[in-house]
Amino acid sequence: MDAIRIPAPGELDALEDDQFRHVVRAFVHAHYPAHLRNPPKRLHWAENQEWYHILAREGWLCPGWPKEHGGLGLSPAKQIILTEEYERHGVARCNDHGIVMLGPLVIQYGTAAQRQEFLPKILTGEHVWCQGYSEPNAGSDLAALRTEAVLDGDHYVVNGQKIWTTLAMDANWIFLLVRTDKHAKKQEGISFLLVDMTTPGITVRPIINLELHDEFCEVFFDNVRVPKANLVGQLNKGWDMAKALLGFERIFLGSPRQSGYALSRLKLLAERMGVADDPAFADTYARLRLDFEDLKALFGTYVDKLKRGETLGPDVSMLKVLQTELFQRITDTMLEIAGENAGLLEPMEGNRDLNLGGLYIQARPATIYGGSNEIQRNILSKNVLNLPG
Amino acid sequence: MSAATADDRAESIRMIRDSAAAVAPPGADLGRIRALRFTDPGFDRAVLVQMGEMGWLGLRLPEAQGGAALGLGEACALAEELGAALVPEPLVAAMLSAAVLAAAGAKLDDVVAGRHYLPLAWQDRADTLDIAAGRDAPRCFVPMAAGADGYLVPVREAGRLALYRATGEARIERTQDGGNLGSFVPVLGERLAADIALDALLDEAALLSAAYLLGGMERAFAMTLDYLRTRSQFGRIIGTFQALQHRAADLKMHLAMTRASVESAAAALDAGATGDARRAAVSRAKARAAEAGLLVTRQCIQLHGGIGYTDQYDVGLYLRKAMVVANQYGSATLHRRRFMATAPEGDE
Question: pTM for the complete prediction?
Answer without folding.
Answer: 0.92
